[in-house]
Amino acid sequence: MPRPIEALIHQPALAHNLARARKAAPDAQVWAVIKANAYGHGIENAYPGLRAADGFAMIDLDEAVRLRALDWRGPILLLEGCFETRDLELCSRLRLWHAVHCEEQIDWLAVHKTHEPHRVFLKLNSGMNRLGFTPTAFRAAWTRLNALPQVDEISLMTHFSDADAQRFGADGIAHQLAAFETATRDLPGERSVCNSAATLRHAARAGGDWVRAGIMCYGGVPDYPEHDAAHWDLQPAMTLRSRLIGIQQLQAGDTVGYGSTFQAEAPLRVGMVACGYADGYPRHAPSGTPVLINGRRSRTVGRVSMDMLAVDLTGFPEAGVGTEITLWGRGPHGSVLPIDEVAHAAGTIGYELMCALARRVPVSVESV
């Protein structure tokens, strides 16, 4: 039989979470963000659950090709725009909308030969300081684009750095929202400012014609641990589960795994799970990281290995080889282990765990 580890993608949860984005921003259209192979879920797996979106946003041209192959005919936005001149040819052929965040991208458009002018999203660097034109350069960039016959409609966008929390003890988006409103005042075009965190926390104030629903589509919480998935009515879209493949009975003083980082204080029964860092589980997850055993909570013990990790079987006398272990997501009997809780225990975020799912893990789908 195959190794007993599996990722299960829940398409109904994706549809639910997308509807949650619409509820949070009822006056806006929704981009479903499917960058990084739909946050590790697989574009082909996620698409049926997200096809009610108004558009899809991503990074790579390859992802756009895959989405068009699924017969999506609606808007597709390249969030980082083009990376070289010839990318514009594919944008023309696939009818892709794309961000413009630097002078070089305008230069490429100026020499691009196309019969159909492009829809672009001009990006303002309102304080994130990654991509985008500074407020002092933004209007000049808009003027250049507006003069090009290769450009049709110009939309306006920015990205918040602290929509999930406060910034220096104050409102996390106020300074960037003010910069955006000043830089874009009186300019025509649709606006897009809200990522998942801003959609959930600030949509009524930040507004915009499009919101970009990323992590929230997959049931991840952008402001965990301040809020959890239940607070925002989000459902996990990915479950990682495996089974016990071995049992060990420890005595007081025995250790578990590489580096002997865990030492039993009393007799302890532990189970070995077919899951390790080569499957995408975080190696740095410490002893005590939560797991579900047959739907009930327990914890990891010792260091995560490449192919295995150990769990505490205290209170689970029935557990044996073949017992189901939920690493994150939906467990038996209606149980749930939020991915954000596992990530928090490991000192990271749920985004990373989703995206790190290894190719060797078999994936199955719960269909809509």
Description:
- 28% of the residues lie in helices and 25% in strands.
- The chain is of the alpha/beta class and 368 residues long.
- It folds into 2 domains: 11-220, TIM Barrel, CATH 3.20.20.10; 238-366, Lyase, Ornithine Decarboxylase, Chain A, domain 1 (Beta Barrel).
- α7 runs parallel beside α8 (174-184).
- The protein is elongated and about 75 Å long.
What are the salient characteristics of this protein?
368 residues, alpha/beta, TIM Barrel, Lyase, Ornithine Decarboxylase, Chain A, domain 1, 2 domains, eight-stranded parallel beta barrel, 28% helix, 25% strand
Tell me roughly what share of residues is in helical segments.
Answer: 25-40%
Q: Reading side by side through the largest sheet, how are the strands ordered?
A: 2-3-4-5-6-7-8-9
Overall average residue pLDDT: 97
CATH homologous superfamily annotation of the largest domain: Alanine racemase
* CATH architecture annotation name of the largest domain: Alpha-Beta Barrel
Class by helix and strand content? alpha/beta
Q: What can be said about this structure in brief?
A:
This protein has 368 residues and is of the alpha/beta class. It has two domains: 11-220, Alpha-Beta Barrel (TIM Barrel); 238-366, Beta Barrel (Lyase, Ornithine Decarboxylase, Chain A, domain 1).
Give me the secondary-structure topology.
Blueprint: E1 6-10, H1 11-24, E2 29-33, H2 35-39, H3 43-50, E3 55-58, H4 61-69, E4 76-78, H5 87-94, E5 97-100, H6 103-111, E6 118-123, H7 135-146, E7 151-157, H8 174-184, E8 191-194, H9 196-206, E9 210-213, H10 229-232, E10 238-250, E11 255-256, E12 262-263, E13 268-273, E14 290-293, E15 296-301, E16 309-312, E17 324-330, E18 336-337, H11 339-345, H12 350-355, E19 363-366
Parallel strand pairs: 1-19, 2-3, 2-9, 3-4, 4-5, 5-6, 6-7, 7-8, 8-9
Antiparallel strand pairs: 1-10, 10-13, 10-17, 11-12, 13-16, 14-15, 14-17, 15-16, 17-18
Helix pairs in contact: 1-3, 4-5, 7-8
